[in-house]
Amino acid sequence: MNPKAEPRIDWDALNEQATEWLSEYIRVDTVNPPGNETRAVEWLGSILDQESISYETYGATKDRLNLVARLHGDGSGGKALILLNHTDVVPFEREHWTVDPMAGEIRDGLIWGRGATDMKGMGIMELISFILHKRHQLPLKRDLVFMAVADEEAGSTYGAEYLADKHPELLDCEYVINEGGQGTVEVLGVERPTFNIGVSEKGPFWLTLRTTGAPGHGSVPTLDNAAVRLVSALERIATWDRPLIVTPEVMEYFQQLHDAGIVSDQPTESMLASLAEQHPRLHSLQTNSISLTTLNAGVKMNVIPAEATATLDCRLIPGYDPDLFMRELVEVINDESVEIIREFESSTPPSRLDTELYEVMTAAAKSHVEDALVVPSVSTGFTDSRVFRRKGITAYGFMPVLLGPMEVGRAHGNDECLSIENLRMGIQVLHETIRGICS
């Protein structure tokens, strides 16, 4: 790319526009469940209409549409680059927020609200670059696709999985840029700007445990109380000592931190086990994790329940066999009367590090923050990247921001927010990345 050939862009004006759009976007209610992502499609579509950009919508139901817009390149650079984002957000407990989670309030240099970081903020960054290509008629050597999908937070049945099943031609591309890799101003307690490029993620394996028993009057305890049987099973699961497993991607992450002086000791399995004892996230990266997320039984204080259920959010190490994990879990519970229902599962291979896009992302990040580290990372959560990776498509998580103390760790939590400064950085780094791989 010849920088002199690129038009001059008013980043101040663009960031002002992006801030306004993100605030508006947060106010578009797409809490999932129920989703209603068509509201986001209509909002995004109105902006694309203003920019004279055509788009198509796809969906299994009218309330849960997906949006796909394409700018055509000359094909000399290969297959398309997809800018992937999801339009739904997770629920919230309003009483635990200090701001209105749906107001998109702009205060103290921050944009507040559900979806600010996961992932409406990233969606706006992608939208800005996509629009810039149309406004300035920037040359493209490959197609550039903006893809806003539904239902990521609940497994993508109405989003990426639907498109993969009903419209697989839309997923035909060489690269995907998605969520799953955010930067931070410090790593492991050391202040050093660090951009993460998500190359892999743990596989979701969501289970429901169900027990039944004879109901009755609470004054006469029974031996087959469904709630007691379920609690006993959960206790055995909670005390299950699962081994640590270090994948090559996790080892590479720590090797690069060691090379940069962030981690003093040469990474080994024993060293990583020691770190896992101190950091819950690092422990999750090295084991098949299990979180009890819901527990339901009973209808009244003095009635023994006939049924009890619990849901487990299990996340498997990349590449771990779900059937093997299921057999291990059955053995640990050791109670044939406990029914285990497999609700949702997915596992995909990692994306390679030795690609042109990985190099371009690294260079773009360093061009804006010269002393930054750029490292490959593994996500403890899952993203829609898995749908592409299982097709052999290279997908990276790359939200090029440096989250500070006020922002980090708030996705899915209370008082989610994104700084206006980070929004600007994300727009510029992402646009430079897209130009680098498309021009």
At a glance:
The chain is an alpha+beta fold and 439 residues long. The protein is built from 12 helices and 17 strands. The protein folds into 2 domains: 3-201 and 350-438, Zn peptidases (Aminopeptidase), CATH 3.40.630; 203-345, 2-Layer Sandwich (Alpha-Beta Plaits), CATH 3.30.70.360.
Can you describe this structure?
It is globular, with a radius of gyration of 23 Å. Strands 1, 2, 3, 6, 7, 8, 15 and 16 form an 8-stranded mixed beta sheet that branches. A 4-stranded antiparallel beta sheet has the order 11-13-9-14, covered by helices on one side. It has 12 helices and 17 strands. It is of the alpha+beta class. 43% of the residues are buried.
Helix content: 25-40%
Shape estimate: globular
Low-confidence stretches: none
The CATH topology assignment of the largest domain is Aminopeptidase
Number of strands: 17
The figure for the number of domains is 2
CATH class of the largest domain: Alpha Beta
Instruction: Give the ordered list of helices and strands.
Output: HHEEEEEHEHEEEEHHHHEEEHEHEHEEH
Termini separation comes to 6 Å
What CATH architecture of the largest domain do you see? Answer: 3-Layer(aba) Sandwich
How many helix segments?
12
* Assembly classification: single chain
* Average pLDDT score: 96
Structural class: alpha+beta
Q: CATH homologous superfamily name of the largest domain?
A: Zn peptidases
Question: What is the alpha-carbon Rg in Å?
Answer: 23 Å
Percentage of residues in DSSP E strands:
25-35%
- Sheet with most strands: 8 strands, mixed
